Amino acid sequence: MTQVNDVELSVLYEAHYRGLVKLASMYVDDVETAEEVTQDAFVKMLSGRYRIEPGREAPYLRSAVLNGARSMLRKRRVRRLHDPEPPGTAPSAEVGGIQGAETQRMLVAMRSLPEKQAAVLILRYYLDLSEAEIADTLGIARGSVKSHAHRGLAKLSNLLEEERTND
Amino acid sequence: MTDEQMDQGPGGRPIDEELASALTEHASRFEPQPNSYMRLQRSIEDTQQAPPRRLPGRYLSAAAVLFVAVGAAAYVATNAGGQEIQTLPPAQSSTTEVAPSTTEPPAPSASSNNDATATGVAPTTTEASETNEVADSLIAGPRRMTKQQAAEDFMALIRLPFARIEVDGDLATVFSFDPDGEPGGAVSELLLVETQLSNGQPGFAVARATSAAAAISSPLPGQKIESGTVIVTGSGQGFEANVGVRIFSSFDGLLFDSNGAIAGNFGDVAPFETELTVTGREYGWIVAQSGGGADGVTEPFSAVPIEWDAGLDSTTYTVSHIPPDDPDGGLNLRNLPTVDESTVLDTLPAGTTGLRRRGDVPAFVDGQVFWAVSTADGKDGWVNRRFLVREDEVAPEVLESMASGFLNEFATFGGQFAEFQPWTTSKPVVIGWPVDMMSLDSATVRSADFWSQEQNWTVPEEAFSTPTVSATFADLLGFPLSSDEANTIGYSFISEAASIPVSSPYGSVQPALESQLTGLARVHVVPTSDFLGNDYPAFTLYVESGPNGPAIVGVTVDFWIP
Fold first, then answer.
1. DSSP code at position B554
2. Does the pLDDT value for residue B532 go beyond 50?
3. pLDDT score at A78
4. pLDDT on residue B256
5. In the structure, what pLDDT confidence band is assigned to residue B516 with cuts at 50, 70 and 90?
6. Could you report the per-residue pLDDT of B11-54, keeping only the tens digit for each?
7. Are B27 and A25 in contact (CB < 8 Å)?
8. Which architecture characterizes domain B140-309 according to CATH?
């Protein structure tokens, strides 16, 4: 097991932790779960299970958080199917207002996209990463980043349009 | 800016701007809690300092015997506080390959030669011991922080729906839905044991499931089978005395084999015996389930964990299920069983034949199972097993029997397949999808043996009320293109297929869709009677000889309005 000293951990924490919690929030709806996913990513990276080259911590952590958060989302969906949450557990209270409702609608639509498309959109439009950085994080070709973004936006637009029509 | 980016979002701005704004607004509500750093520090310290608490296999087996002999209380007492575990292994091998988790993995190698040592390092004595202990950790259900989560994820692993689970002490009672979809009665009790999560934190896992209506007496929990045949004996009851017995991988719930057995009928409990076939080295769960009659959607079941070593697998596999727009253009052969930290040694296009499993235990990394394989031209590496299918030929009579079974199965869901009444009545249609699916989606239907996944959706009436021959597969079946399930690999494949227009009239070819199912056997099912007087639906079932034997992996629909 790789031993991590406090200074190293502190540097990593300061540089990445807060942003990763927010990144996890794209898939989960409470801070506790977002932090759990983020902490798992740190522990995994620092466990020595994989050798991370110096300077590669950020893409590794981003990738681990995306995977972990998506996994949480899938499990939560399965649980909801079999054991629906009781009324009143929706996050509407903290969202609030028209702006919150629109945000929630966008988020739900975004989460329903195929996972690569959603991940590309999050990395591009939330973290503002370049195509190269996205490709590096997701382990895909730069050309694929373009096509996933293109399709993802198109699909997102259609979904929102459909919802607007249904409303 | 692309056309799509120019599209207007609901707020009237370009969709990309609205997306960026929404994501930023959402994220602004999430701030780490004040003690985050301290908790992270503690988690890492715990992981680094705490010696792995593992229970050697012989203890687990002995405890299992004890459980059978004197009951659950003794078993729990034997294991309390001493269980498990360790992170699932990145890879293990009896000969070479990847170093266990306590050492750093070998440096990635771009070599594509067939020297096994080029892909890893030989284990030391310490590592070999580690390997055995890690292996023991797999003889348990998914490990989770709470008993409830452990029980729920175990049910997902063995693919059984449930209405609810009630935890009381070390036991979790599983309740089924009744046939109307309402919560019904108890169908099994899960025994929960304490364990350790991969991050060193305490957690829980399922050690076995029990039910008097379908009990397994052999193999014993934790028993190792030294062959490719697992003989399962027990006692139970079922509709027309049928009990279903299945074996799933502990890694990802892959269904290895299933078989029916004859037990007691309608309340009479009687012994049963059946054989299951397994391959390679793996850890798995045997599940025996009553064949019906208990008025529940999920019938009573029992489950025991085992391991097996069936020796080298002589079966050859073909690369399949590669989406046509896959950016890599095929299945990546990697030097390590992970996507994140491996080097791609080669990319195997769809249709590549002659792959053989090496003797290694599969590696379960980030939710994916990797098999160590050798290619026909002698390259060794690791591949994601979801993209391999067996090369055994599926006999015509098997195809015919499956088609017939498929039709019968539809009939049990409230309609005649050939008539497909749900098209006009908007009643749910149920279709099975490929092997390897990870989660259950329908809690209201029962699974046929050859289905590992069921999808329940409603066909929109509009798809058939307009006089057009142009529709997509998704339109025809109302396939949820943007559903949760599209996020899984299997559903990505199907959703790609679903987006292809199916505008061909009855009897014509659908080249685009067929290209996605290349290499698979096809069964055409053509109804003998008209559909709604003028419509002539035709169905094509795509069947492959997968790791679980023949399985329906796709359905296409042609229809024609004259």
1. E
2. no
3. 44
4. 75
5. very low
6. 667 888 888 888 888 888 888 887 888 888 877 777 665 433 32
7. yes
8. Sandwich (2.60)
Residue in B6, B28, B40, B325 to test binding to A, most A beta-carbons within 10 Å: B40
Q: Taking the mean position of all CA atoms in its chain, how far away is CA B428? A: 24
Average confidence score pLDDT of chain A: 74
The verdict on a CB contact (< 8 Å) between A154 and B7 is yes
Q: How far apart are CA B68 and CA B65, in angstroms?
A: 5
CB contact under 8 A, B48 and A70: no
A-chain residue closest to B165, CA distance: A83
pLDDT-based confidence at residue B108 (cuts at 50, 70, 90) = very low
pLDDT score recorded for residue B315: 74
Q: What is the mean pLDDT of chain B?
A: 60
Nearest CA-CA partner of B308 in B244, B365, B361: B361
A12 close contact with B: CB closer than 8 A: no
* Domains of chain A, start order: 1-89 (1.10.1740), 98-167 (1.10.10.10)
User: Residue B496 pLDDT > 60, yes or no?
Assistant: no
Q: Residues near B360 by Cβ (< 8 Å), separated by ≥ 6?
A: B91, B92, B93, B94, B97, B281, B371, B372
Respond yes or no on whether the N-terminal peptide bond of residue B85 is cis (omega within 30° of 0): yes
As given in the structure block, the two tokens for residue B484 are 């949760």
The answer to whether residues A122 and B23 touch, using CB atoms and an 8 Å cutoff, is: yes
> Could B367 and A71 be called an inter-chain contact, meaning their C-beta atoms sit closer than 8 Å?
yes
* Angle, helices B15-27/A115-125, rounded to nearest 10 degrees: 80
For residue B29, the chain A residues in CB contact (below 8 A) are 25, 94-95
What is the DSSP track for B388-454?
EEE-PPPPHHHHHHHHHHHHHHHHHTTS-TTTTTHHHH--EEEEEE-TT--S---SSSPPPTT-SEE
Q: Which residues of B touch A48 (CB under 8 A)?
A: 101-104
- Single-letter amino acid, residue B96: T
- Are B393 and B545 in contact, with CB atoms under 8 Å apart? yes
B311 pLDDT above the threshold of 50: yes
Q: Which amino acid is at B326?
A: D
CB atoms within 10 A of CB B511: 9
pLDDT of res. B523: 59
Query: Is the backbone peptide bond immediately before B34 cis, with ω within 30 degrees of 0?
Result: no
CB contact under 8 A, A42 and B40: yes
Instruction: With beta carbons less than 8 A apart as the criterion, state whether A28 and A111 touch.
Output: no
Complex prediction ipTM = 0.85
Crossing angle of helices A142-166 and A97-111, rounded to 10°: 130
**Which of 2.30.30.40, 3.20.20.450, 3.40.50.300, 1.20.1070.10 would CATH assign to domain B313-389?**
2.30.30.40
* B342: Cα within 13 Å, side-chain hemisphere: 22
> In a mutagenesis test of the B interface, which of A83, A105, A117, A128 is the best target, namely the one with the most B β-carbons within 10 Å?
A83
Every domain of chain B and the residues it spans: 1-25, 140-309, 313-389, 396-558
Of B117, B295, B289, the C-alpha closest to B216 is: B289
At residue B384's C-alpha, the angle toward residues B490 and B341, to 5°, is: 120
* pLDDT tops 70 at residue B143: yes
| Token output for B259 | 């078989």
Using 50, 70 and 90 to split pLDDT, how confident is the model at B268?
confident
Least confident of A40-44, B129-133, B151-155, B241-245: B129-133
Of the two residues A26 and B7, the one the predictor is more confident about is: A26
Mean predicted confidence (pLDDT) in B91-114: 27
* Contact status, residue A110 vs residue A156, Cβ threshold 8 Å: yes
Q: Which regions of B411-512 does DSSP assign to beta strands (E)?
A: 428-433, 453-458
Helix (H, G, I), strand (E, B) or coil at A147: helix
